[in-house]
């Protein structure tokens, strides 16, 4: 929290603030000392908040017109598209908004991986973030089911059947999730209910995420601890607010590009066919943001094994702060890790591509290689590189490389190496 | 001293008893909230379907919907039956004789859930490496008896409870 005590100027303000210190909170958020060297990869927190609010607002509006019934859902979505005033716009913002949300969250996560933002003392921020990510996937999956098209129905069937892989109780759990003996009207109904609930859970976690962030303060591209407030920091407002707003505007241009010019490019055309429980589409693919995990699931020729690896691919991220043994946060000063980082990025992108392709031939082979590497990166590369890597010298402060005109003196930085 | 000890014991008992009653009460409230998600009476009421099979030629099959899931009813040719029975048990990931999958005396009728045991897709008929069914989702191959032969599915396609009402009618469920 801020170092200084906030005193409201007006008498009424003081009266209110003594009873509920909202003005103190506001002052804290305004003055919050932020590292002055944050680059544009740090603007995605604000962008994500925008995405969440966009989804909540458009979602509430869509729920005023949508009917969560197996016989009516598909028609009600078409009703929104054709009859409801601006319904097409609101629905396209909501459906593309999900993709934009994931685009932003992936950049946000990979920024964290590059600059070591998940490391001590920020493990709890990281873990809350992953919980948000998990809830996002649940919300996106259930939302995709609601139009009750072919991909909705069969996506729901495949994903809920993942739980049937659990030994002994799997089938009972699947039936319980369905509320029927297959994906059916009760399933659609409850998915709608939960789809409406989850964004508010996410909102609560976002508050905790930011709260946990404001305890140690932001990490920064150099990855060193800084004194707050100091000449290494700037107040959040107006410095960061204006920068975040500018980045948000650029992001909104991309967002609007999808909504107005190619609103269906990220979806699957089969979802404009009403759900038919007798016919499975030839190629079932999830939305693009789940493809890497889908590739991992399919790369294992065993049902339970595939499900375990797929969930494992996400849950391994929770222990990442303890798998990474390096004391240096930022990959800027980690020449070896930096290379593995980019290999990992390529690996995830490749897995995503394999997830979209049929699971056969060379695609299956590459998906298996990608899956093995995915886990090697966390289980082998992260611990070992941290132990053996010779890191570059680290500056004493953020101001230093600027004021001394370039890199730090090696002798100066060396003694700082261990302190991080 | 002994008086104090006695008090402590009495208090411990009260704590334990309170927590126990509280836990039972909580469970009694939570269970209805969980169980409401299980299939309701309307869903359970759809548990049987009668199918007229008089129009199915040998070698052909029909698909009906039962409890929201497709059921394949295939009238197999003698060749197909012979082929299914010639398979060695060692070649099967989920060993099961063809005889166990049909009703005795009605060997030509294979009645099974048309649901892949991997992740629940509907397999395509007359496809795959074993002339039976092939699941397009993740590449599982089934033979003419609906048994898994290759791919990620762990089990044979399930045989539902069914009976012959008469020669032309099958009741599923």
For this structure, the quaternary state is: heterodimer
Structural class of chain B: alpha+beta
User: Hey, roughly how much beta strand do the residues of chain A contain?
Assistant: under 5%
* H/E topology pattern of chain A: HHEHHHHHHHEHHHHHHHH
Strand content of chain B: 15-25%
Q: Please give the radius of gyration of chain A in angstroms.
A: 24 Å
Largest interface: A-B, 36 and 28 residues
In total, how many beta strands of chain B? 10
The secondary-structure element order of chain B is HHEEEHEEEEEEE
Q: How far do the termini of chain B sit from each other?
A: 70 Å
Proportion of helical residues of chain A: 55-70%
The coarse overall form of chain B would be elongated
Biggest sheet character of chain A: 2 strands, antiparallel
Number of strands of chain A: 2
pLDDT < 50 stretches of chain B: none
Helix-strand blueprint:
The complex is a heterodimer of chains A (420) and B (173).
Chain A: H1 11-19, H2 22-31, E1 33-35, H3 44-63, H4 73-82, H5 87-115, H6 123-145, H7 150-161, H8 170-178, H9 185-214, E2 233-235, H10 236-261, H11 291-299, H12 303-315, H13 320-323, H14 335-356, H15 361-388, H16 399-403, H17 410-417
Antiparallel strand pairs in A: 1-2
Helix pairs in contact in A: 3-5, 3-9, 3-10, 4-5, 5-6, 5-10, 6-7, 6-9, 11-12, 11-14, 11-15, 14-15
Chain B: H1 2-35, H2 41-45, E1 49-52, E2 61-66, E3 69-75, H3 78-86, E4 109-113, E5 124-125, E6 133-135, E7 140-142, E8 148-150, E9 162-166, E10 169-172
Antiparallel strand pairs in B: 1-10, 2-3, 3-4, 5-6, 6-7, 7-8, 9-10
